Task: structure prediction
Amino acid sequence: MNLAVIGAQWGDEGKGKIVDLLTPHVSIVARYQGGHNAGHTVNVGDAQFILHLLPSGILHPGVRCVIGNGVVVDPDALFAEIETLATQGIEVGDRLLISDKAHVILPYHRELEVLAEARRGDQRIGTTSRGIGPSYEDKVARRGIRMADLGDTSDDGPLASAIRQNVSARNRAIGGTETDWRALHRHLRAAWARLDRWVGDASLFLTRAMEAGQCVLFEGAQGTLLDIDHGTYPFVSSSNSTVGGLCTGLGVGPRSIGAVLGIAKAYTTRVGEGPLPTEQHGAMGDQLRESGREYGASTGRPRRCGWYDAVAVRYAVRINGLDALAVTKIDVLDGLDEIPLCTGYRHAGEVLTEFPSNAATLAACEPVYEVLPGWSSPTAGVRRYEDLPPQAQAYLKRIEAVTGVPISIVSTGSDRADTILVAGGLIDRWQAECALASK
Ligand code: IMP
Result:
């Protein structure tokens, strides 16, 4: 009954809204990768919440939220987010558990990232400047500082020595104003005084909770095409946002995942550099961006917009073993006469129907479109599948046919209530099972 929610495109698919919608049926929401590069927007009535590091489940009183070992945590960003939520009436209290194995993002990670991006010139990735990549680099280089390490409060213990060594490497790499390791040590000790209550063994907590019959929602950040292994490398983030990252990023076995729901917009967006075959430049791209309010929730950057890429989503189905799809923002396509849907790529005189492994090949691909009729009556705010215009239903049916998985949720607006749950679909059945189990 545990459900994984995973981005099936380049991030920003609307996972925040879907997780928020499903949270009332679970006891725990767990994030397994990424950091505060994510921006999950949840609208409830007139209130808007933007979550970066905390699982979206935090908005629901009584729900426990887990930040797994696969997440990289910037303590200052975490405190800022907790404080913002408090001003909006959401208290985190003791509902948060951060894995003692999660790695810490330090201020110089941000500086290293900005420097690396500048050095890349026109090959830059377009990262979020949150220090995510350099923190994962330290993890893999086995010099990272983990949450549990912060508990060493001695003046000259292992934490002090690790900080001294890392800072001296940073000072050699960056030059300019040197980081004072003692100041950083003091800063981290002060952070620990606040973090201590939340840090523990997340794998053990989750395992015991699942054994006791509690239901967990696993919340992915970013999307399949930004995955460090399976995304459009090197134009990717630094973690495994695909389903495999869930097991390593939380310390749970694959059998704890009951089903996998992929989230994809009714069109495609991407923020940052890298290939995007269906990208629309000019008026059409602008129309999608303005109508979909496609500006980064973390950085405010305008998102690149294009048509639905069924080759990319079908790839996400394969990599994640998706059981069903949620299609979000269909209302953004309201009023268009025709809607192109990409079902293949033309490359070097051939038509490819599988997503290429190599970003350079993808960049050289021309999309092959099927053009479907648009609809004139709006889908915005529609809450029953049968009330969708027939052309919108046909568009969704075609997505199911070309991706090979059923659609279980259709989102028709930013509010929680603007959602269609497909009767008899995966999520409809899952909700019924959760309700039975909680009796
Ligand atoms: P990083 O994660 O900051 O290293 O950025 C690497 C790439 O992933 C850049 O293209 C970012 O724009 C993109 N990215 C990172 N996080 C998100 C997200 O939550 N949504 C969409 N794109 C993201």
The chain has a mean pLDDT of 95. DSSP finds 13 helices and 20 strands in the chain.
